[in-house]
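A.,

Following up on our hallway conversation. Structure tokens first:
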């Protein structure tokens, strides 16, 4: 079974003086449902890089950039996560390793390629339709920041909501895809999300 590296959120526990890496258990379950072995990445850039190279030797199918934590330039408090994910994206681009990002993961990809995020309303804990280059469908939404206009030539806006928010992107040349919706929060996981990941990452 090939490996998918997935990133984790940073939880700050003031009462213990701790910064904890953690992830919803449904993320690993979703990766398993797609047919891959999930491996969590610590929020340390050097460790993330070493893990990338080790997993590449062991059979790395791709990288999953997950949700949670705003980016530091937009008010976030997890610079170590920004740094680790930036390192992973750079390594993926250099090695043409597939990347799928969702919610914050998509925001990180947008930021990496020089696109701006803006504050949006009506996109938290709701479901809404998305449409564009693919068949329209309804997705979940849990974000306050998004992109409404791409400024980088490398990325393509694939799907949008009715209010113009970009909900899915892909890279023109590299195996990089991202969505603003959370595939792991669908109950059950949708075949559409599973097939999209399998198409990007290849056989498990």
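Then the amino acids I'd put at each of the 204 positions:
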């Amino acid at each position: 079974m090939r490996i998918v590296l997935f990133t984790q959120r940073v939880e700050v526990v003031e009462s213990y003086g701790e910064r904890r890496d953690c992830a919803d258990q449904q993320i690993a379950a979703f990766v398993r449902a797609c047919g891959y072995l999930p491996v969590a990445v610590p929020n340390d850039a050097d460790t993330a890089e070493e893990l990338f190279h080790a997993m590449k030797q062991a059979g790395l199918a791709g990288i999953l950039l997950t949700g949670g934590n705003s980016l530091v330039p937009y008010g976030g408090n997890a610079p170590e996560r920004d740094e680790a994910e930036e390192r992973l994206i750079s390594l993926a681009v250099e090695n043409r390793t597939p990347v799928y990002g969702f919610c914050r993961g998509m925001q990180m990809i947008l930021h990496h390629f020089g696109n701006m995020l803006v504050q949006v309303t009506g996109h938290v804990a709701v479901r809404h339709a998305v449409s564009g280059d693919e068949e329209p469908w309804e997705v979940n939404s849990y974000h306050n920041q998004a992109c409404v206009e791409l400024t980088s030539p490398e990325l393509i806006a694939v799907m949008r909501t009715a209010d113009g928010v970009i909900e899915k992107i892909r890279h023109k040349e590299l195996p990089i895809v991202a969505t603003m919706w959370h595939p792991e929060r669908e109950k059950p996981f949708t075949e559409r999300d599973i097939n999209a990941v399998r198409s990007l990452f290849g056989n498990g």
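The chain has one domain: 3-201. Curious whether your intuition agrees with the design.

B.
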